Amino acid sequence: MRYIKYLFLAALAVILISVALANRGTVTLNTLPEGLREMPGMGVASYSIELPLYLVIFIGIAAGLLIGFVWEYLREIKHRSMASRKAREARELEREVKRLKAQKNEGKDEVLALLDETG
């Protein structure tokens, strides 16, 4: 299984390197389109930067993964809180069962109490 993981990672590295080598040209990224940039007051938010295309692609993939992870984390909050609440209830019920068994076996012989606990 470990070799399959290494083989997959090596194939992924080859693919990423080939994408990077094939897309080395620079592109200009703008925060606003030209029409909005010329409107009064919008010049403050207008930035542009020149980057290689492969870097733009990789940043886009990383941003998409990050957004997906955050979205999934927020979506699962209710399930995690319910699971922790159920685990807490189970621990409380186990403590209560132990307490009731100890109460039931209070005056008995220790051997008989152990036999009662096992089944």
From TrEMBL:
InterPro entries per record: LapA_dom
Transmembrane segments: 51-74
Domain Lipopolysaccharide assembly protein A: 48-97
Top-level taxon of origin: Bacteria
Key words of the record: Cell membrane, Coiled coil, Isomerase, Membrane, Transmembrane, Transmembrane helix
Stretches of the chain forming a coiled coil according to its record: 83-117
Gene Ontology cellular component list: plasma membrane
Listed GO MF terms: isomerase activity
Protein name, entry field: Phosphoribosylanthranilate isomerase
